Amino acid sequence: MGAPSAGAEPGAGVPAADDTRSGRPLLSLALASMMEEVQAHSGAVYLLAADEPVLEMAVTAGLPRAFAAPWERVGLSAPIPVAEAARDRRLVWVGGEEDMVRRYPRIAVVLPYPFALAALPVATADTLYGAVYVTWPGAHPTVLSDRERDSLTSACDRLAVRLERAARKNRALRAEPDLLAAPSGTAGSLGTVEAARMVGRLPYGLASLDLHGRVGFANAAAAELLGVPVDDLLGTQPWVSVPWLNDPMYEDRYRAALISQHVTSFVALKPPGDWLSFRMYPSTTGLTTRISRARAVAEMVGAAPRADATPAHRLVTISQVLSLAGALTEAVGVQDVVQLVADEVVPAVGSQALVVLGSRGGRLHVLGHRGYEDPRIVERFDGLPLAERNPGAHVLNTGVPAFFESKQQLERLYPDHKETPDGFAAWAFLPLIASGRPVGTCVLAYAEPHAFPTDERAVLTSLGGLISQALERALLYDAKNQLAHGLQAALLPHSLAPPSGIEAAARYLPAMHGMEIGGDFYDLVPTRPLAAAVIGDVQGHNVTAAGLMGQIRTGVRAFTTVGQAPEEVMRSTNQLLIDLGADLFASCLYLRLDPERGRAVMARAGHPPPLLRRPDGRVRVLDLAGGPLLGIDSEATYPTTEVSLAPGSVLALYTDGLVESPGVDIEDALVDLGELLSESGDQPLDKLADTLVRHSAAAQERVDDVAVLLLRAESDG
Question: What 3-state DSSP class applies to 520?
């Protein structure tokens, strides 16, 4: 089903309701009404783009759009409230600053202020049109009231119905301005002449700022303290017109006051040595700033703010960089980095496609891409020599970004590009440099010709620096992960060869933390006339544990092959572990299978007891005699227990990672595992193994490795 779109103009491509035919701004009115009903402080309406899973901000209210600059265009998969609300079709509530830090750290990094937020989908039963968020100052209760919830939900439902009705009539939305208070005017316009005279007599400075931070009024004392004439202050932002206030920290205080609606203050050094105190009193229409000479600041240190910083778009730049930095800290592997850049950077900068290139063996390597209908267009880069003339290799080799505002620009420098058109019209090639060396190139592609002004090039280059740090970590992680999986695969059996009359299935899952490699092992030794099975767990999940596990498994195979009885195999393996001097212990369960006689002889060394499911579905925990963990006592003995294994019986061997997890009683976990085995034991053995590891709470969290070995005695029929 078709989704509406939102382009450069709010709601472009989304048909409107009857309100728009009469000139009434549909989205603005709906948002204003919604905010008024719940006494919200700010808000925004997002519309879903028609041709991509992206939400685009259509109209905002209460605060400048720049405050939400990193989220003007967000992917539906982005981990932020408005995307989550649209994606899951539910209300998302964030009760305050602590809640925001815990659940949405990326937003908290950019907007570290006390405020509450609700995000809701704008959708009918069949179609998602977009989403809405509204915010309240920090004084709002941490719980959303039922009245507020019902009011917001009803308002979004009404808006969705209007958009649906308009879509059927094919009416497009007109551009709607953001809903902000009008500027305060000029000096002296505080209501009456006498009021202006009164303020002018005060011994401290007063200035009125609108929601954009522009000065609408300043008295003579404020101008004197700031060192700037009143006429030069009016209509400007203080951090622009006052050189020594040109520092992000002071602008941040203004944002903090407006978003939290709390009185906010700071001190600043006016060169050469005068400290001034600024106290901001906010309201929903702007804020009043009281300026006076600061006292007791002699202990404060720090140089004066630089006067040469470029103020233009600084707020947007800082917010975008902080947001992406927070997002990239969550990236683990290379594909995580590619996906995050696609979700965070591509929508924010207005590009439509992405390629991340790396190098290997003197050749380009495509690490990932998004937005290309035909993957073969991108894959042609894979394997190209770095010495070949193409922009991706050139940027990677030189470390210098390249921007092509049109197809003609690119083809003029790289004529070969004509032969393999990718359907895009502008490109930014960003070098990814980490630890002083190039690690790749990030290519952003635009569907239309795109100018790259100086400030945008600076932003993109800065973002490239953040991406490169994450990519370097991800490449290292993927290399370690590949090594770990390769080592684990080499140490565990590639297949199981059970004896006649026995079915077998096994599963191994690494812990979710660390190197994803551990000391859990299992094996099936097809000796004649009796086969043997073993499962064990060397403490730890690292390379040392895995290496020792491999030695133990090899030892068990050797002792079994020479014909040792189960208790002798355990004693020999225990002595082997002690002789290796590894200072690590291991649990182990060993059994000799005799399917013809329907029995199994078992020996146990500190290992969790196996479960036996009888043919009638009843399950019991086998209480086996046993000895201590392997590697502790060279004199330890390991008595054996004989267990009946009737046709159709299932024997479940496992390591403690399947049943042990923080806060879960081991007996309760065994009962749950037994019930699951009883209910699902008639499944094919491979499916049963998947069921056991999928539904075990401990296995899902995986603070430890998990190994499972299932053995079924085949029925006579």
Answer: strand
Structure tokens of 637?
């003995």
Nearest to 440 by CA among 465, 415, 408: 465
- Pairing label, strands 54-61, 402-404: unpaired
Contacts of 577 (CB under 8 A, 6+ apart): 548, 552, 584, 585, 586, 630, 631
- What residue ranges in 68-127 does DSSP mark as E strands? 73-75, 92-94, 115-123
Q: pLDDT (tens digit, 9 = 90+) per residue, 119-155? A: 999 999 999 999 999 999 988 999 999 999 999 999 9
Q: What pLDDT is attached to residue 398?
A: 86
Asked whether 96 and 135 are in contact (CB, 8 A), the reply is: no
pTM listed for this prediction: 0.48
Burial class of residue 258, CB neighbours in 10 A (0-12, 13-18, 19+): buried
Q: How far apart are CA 622 and CA 609, in angstroms?
A: 6
Q: What SS3 class is residue 427?
A: strand
How do residues 247-257 score in pLDDT, each as one tens digit? 777 887 888 88
- Least confident range from 306-315, 510-519, 623-632: namely 306-315
Kindly state the greatest CA–CA separation across the chain: 110
Q: What is the DSSP letter of 633?
A: -
Token pair, residue 46, equals 């997002």
Q: Considering Cα of 410, then 412, then 416, then 420, what sign does the dihedral take?
A: positive
Question: Quick one: CA dihedral 304, 310, 315, 316, positive or negative?
Answer: negative
CA distance 184 to 178: 17
Beta carbons of 543 and 549 less than 8 angstroms apart: no
